[in-house]
Design goal:
homodimer, 191 residues, alpha+beta, GMP Synthetase, Chain A, domain 3, 2 domains, three-stranded antiparallel sheet, two-stranded antiparallel ribbon, 38% strand, KH_dom-like_a/b (chains A, B), Osmotically inducible protein C (chains A, B), OsmC/Ohr_hydroprdx_reductase (chains A, B), OsmC/Ohrsf (chains A, B)
């Protein structure tokens, strides 16, 4: 039995309708998310998020989102944005929290606050190609949640478990995703 | 033999010194990246990137970076930022491009422009818990590069291969990363 009304800022009536619609027509649940990236200089790049496909239609965000990435001085950049592996932590943190809050709403549990700290251990020898024994990416990631909700401790623990069980980015980072990279020379220089 | 001077905005002399220093003391290559996230309402969260550990010291970014995530209206959010799986694409795009540009610099290859388009296929039934047969995250990701560089086509193809071989986020998404999630109730509500 799902809750009704708006809980945690999530319209649970619309959530229930969406679930019913998908049960009737699973094709509605097929999404395709998109990004374009343009290099500036050194470690500085800008990603633009403009549109996506879902519910059998192409949709445009209310406005474009621009995400700047760069490296700190120690890593030879100009520190004009979080670096790519920090952006990966932001994707994980936001996804776990959104998953927790939406699934709490579906169960009628009011959440008042969610905070999390994340850290990931990375050995630069991978990126630099100095050792085959270390991986390029994070060796491991730690996430520490603090949740304030109308629920007892065991229910909050369950919500934290559920966030991991349902979060798309938790799956993307925990499990292998096939990435196909194509490309080649640019036909005409735009820089 | 590495190039010298500044190429593609990357100080290759400093890059060479860094590599030499790491060869002498691999502990310098141990990094720990960090993020904190705070939920606002619905699908809206804000991640702050403030400091990191590397080269045996705690270091602070020149300024804090704030990354807003939200869901579009179709996914019951207010569209106040890219959503978490779009942020994952931005992490991948920026990392592949930075890897390409830095390794090109180390080889003395001048890059004039790099652009990429990414998309990822995702079935919402995973997140909603409606099917055990679909995964929560991306089924697959496609990346399409356009590179303008002082190099022939086969060298550009090699750079695109090298980007994949060395990119930390490519590794993080392609291969499993262990994520440990802890947490529980907040001691005092801050909202």
């Amino acid at each position: 039995m799902m809750a009704t009304g708006k809980i945690n800022g999530v319209d649970v009536d619309r959530l229930a309708s969406t679930i019913d619609a998908i049960k009737g027509d699973p094709g509605i649940a097929s999404f395709r998310f998109r990004a374009t990236n343009r290099w500036d200089e050194g470690g500085h790049t800008e990603t633009t998020i403009h549109d996506f496909y879902g519910a059998r239609q192409d949709l445009t965000h209310q406005r474009d989102f621009h995400i700047h990435a760069d490296e700190p001085d120690l890593l030879l950049g100009k520190d004009m944005g979080a670096n790519p592996v920090e952006l990966a932590l932001s994707a994980l943190a936001s996804c776990l929290t959104t998953s927790l809050v939406y699934h709490a709403a579906a169960r009628g549990i009011t959440v008042r606050a969610v905070e999390s700290d994340l850290d990931g251990e990375l050995d630069l020898r991978g990126f630099l190609g100095l050792s085959d024994k270390v991986r390029n990416g994070y060796k491991n990631i730690n996430v520490n949640f603090r949740v304030d909700a109308d629920a007892d401790q065991s229910t909050i623990d369950e919500l934290i478990q559920l966030a991991q069980k349902r979060s798309p980015v938790f799956d993307i980072i925990s499990n292998p995703v096939s990435i196909k990279v194509n490309g080649g020379p640019m036909r005409s220089a735009k820089h």
